[in-house]
Design brief:
The chain is built from one helix and 34 strands. It folds into two domains: 228 residues, Sandwich (Jelly Rolls); 195 residues, SPRY domain (Jelly Rolls, Sandwich), CATH 2.60.120.920. The two termini are 20 Å apart. The chain is elongated, with a radius of gyration of 23 Å. The protein is mainly β. The strands form six sheets. Strands 1, 3, 8, 9, 10, 15, 18 and 20 form an eight-stranded antiparallel beta sheet that branches.
């Protein structure tokens, strides 16, 4: 069985659509900030947010929202809410771990310290499921009418936490979407989401309630004003190291493929929403997509790190674990790769030595059009298809081997090389022309007719 996802969990396709998310990168110190001019209700409030993690670490803290020492974050792979004050900890953390970088998680944190029962003063849900005593590790309980720092006049930070002494800061890696903070009301997940009747997947729905004094709604839809509050309160956030290019179309209602880190490939650094990998030492490393396909026609692009880069496809479980990542695409049976340095295709461990194939170098855009229905793969360099191939006429495609589902990917060899993939939802490299698949995605070169970006909406319709 493959260790990789065929489709990311909690990737809904429904009536209520979320169009955009915001990518956060800890290495770039990216976050949003706002300091309320007056305090709201510090005893009763609700936070709702969708997040997609992109970098995992057993000890790192990945912050979602903080207000002084009141904050919600991933502590390693556990989810933790802290309500610390004056050196006293009030927190609870899930015993569950959240390591699926192919999935969106919906998190709702409710605080109501006016409740008579101490265990009712803070509640946490993930994907509509209450994190009950079976799931929680708690430390003390907040006192009756305890005042948190949420909705206080302390700086509120999305994607960051700064400790009291400002001696260190912690940031978030991943995507966030649909963040609501409701000041003065204790709400539950059903105010923000619901279970899809057909799939059983938890999905977002429109929130129609009020927000209170310091409440806000960040939908990240305006690329020119990504910190804009859409609640009507005008509680806008300041951007810190964030630009319009950090807006993404990878959302809970249309989940795009990213690079898979399930088996934690060594000697590489993954960043920028799992669309970029940097090589730390010489030696082959192969990384493939989080989403796999068993039918349909698919397209993605790669900005090469150097001529020692490969783009390609692999069948199910070929690069699923163990030391398989040490083999370049095409070295193992069931895989195929286009190599820049020697201008050739490798397949099932054999150099196919085709004619009419050009090499590529750093910053060239190479693309792969994969026709699973007919078992063919087509590669281009800067828009010119190699081996005199033409995916529009099904001419000169390479026959793919291995078993479905198939995963798109790259191999990189040279130290310090930076490779940047574009599955359509987010990309790092600059796009000068802008082409979609007719549905979704944004690419440098136009996908062939009938080929689509690798995302859950396209999978539902064309996969």
């Amino acid at each position: 069985m493959s260790l990789l996802a065929v489709a990311g969990a909690n990737s809904s396709v429904g009536v209520y659509d979320i169009d955009n998310s915001l990518k956060f990168e800890a290495d770039n110190n990216e976050y949003l900030s706002r300091t309320p001019s007056s305090a709201g209700n510090r005893r009763t409030w609700t936070l709702s947010c969708w997040v997609k993690r992109t970098e995992l670490a057993s000890s790192a803290s990945m912050q979602i929202l903080s207000a002084g020492d009141t904050y919600l974050h991933f502590d390693g792979d556990r989810l933790k809410a802290n309500f610390r004050s004056a050196g006293t900890n009030f927190f609870f953390a899930t015993n569950r771990v959240f390591r699926d970088t192919s999935a969106w998680y919906h998190i709702v944190l409710q605080c109501d310290t006016t409740q008579a029962t101490n265990t009712d003063r803070a509640k946490l849900w993930v994907n509509g499921e209450a994190q009950t005593a079976d799931w929680l590790d708690s430390y003390d309980n907040m006192a009756l009418n305890y005042e948190t720092l949420m909705n206080s006049t302390d700086e509120h930070e999305v994607g960051k936490y700064t400790n009291d002494e400002s001696t260190y800061a912690e940031f978030f890696n991943g995507y966030m979407a649909e963040m609501h903070l409701v000041d003065g009301t204790a709400l539950t997940p059903t105010d923000f989401g619901e279970t899809d009747n057909d799939s059983g997947i938890w999905k977002p729905k429109e929130y129609t309630g009020s927000y209170g004094t310091n409440g806000f709604y960040l939908d990240f839809e305006d690329s020119s004003s990504l910190g804009a509050d859409s609640s009507g309160n005008g509680n806008n956030f300041t951007l810190n190291n964030i630009a319009a290019a950090d807006q993404a179309t990878d959302t809970p209602t249309n989940n795009f493929a990213v690079l898979n880190t399930l088996h934690r490939i060594p000697d590489t650094t993954r960043k920028e929403g799992l669309t970029t990998t940097v090589k730390n030492n010489n030696g082959w490393r192969t990384i493939i997509s989080t989403l796999g396909v068993s039918s349909g026609k698919w397209y993605f692009e790669l900005s090469a790190g150097s001529e020692y880069t490969m783009i390609g496809v692999a069948g199910d479980a070929v690069y699923g674990g163990g030391g398989t990542w040490e083999n370049y695409l095409g070295a193992l049976t069931g895989s195929l790769g286009y190599y820049g340095n020697t201008a050739t295709f490798f397949q099932d461990g054999v150099d196919k030595s085709p004619t009419n194939v050009s090499g590529f170098v750093a910053d060239d855009i190479v693309g792969l059009a994969l026709d699973v229905d007919n078992g063919k793969a087509y590669f281009h360099k800067n828009g010119t298809y190699q081996n005199l191939a033409n995916p529009n006429t099904s001419t000169n495609g390479y026959t793919i081997t291995g078993d479905a589902p198939y995963f798109l990917g790259l191999s990189t060899y040279q130290q310090s090389d930076q490779c940047e993939v574009n599955f359509g939802g987010y990309h790092v490299y600059s796009i000068s022309s802008g082409n979609s698949d007719g549905e979704y995605g944004n690419f440098e070169y136009a996908p062939p007719s009938g080929y689509y970006a690798l995302c859950t909406k396209n999978l539902a319709e064309y996969g």
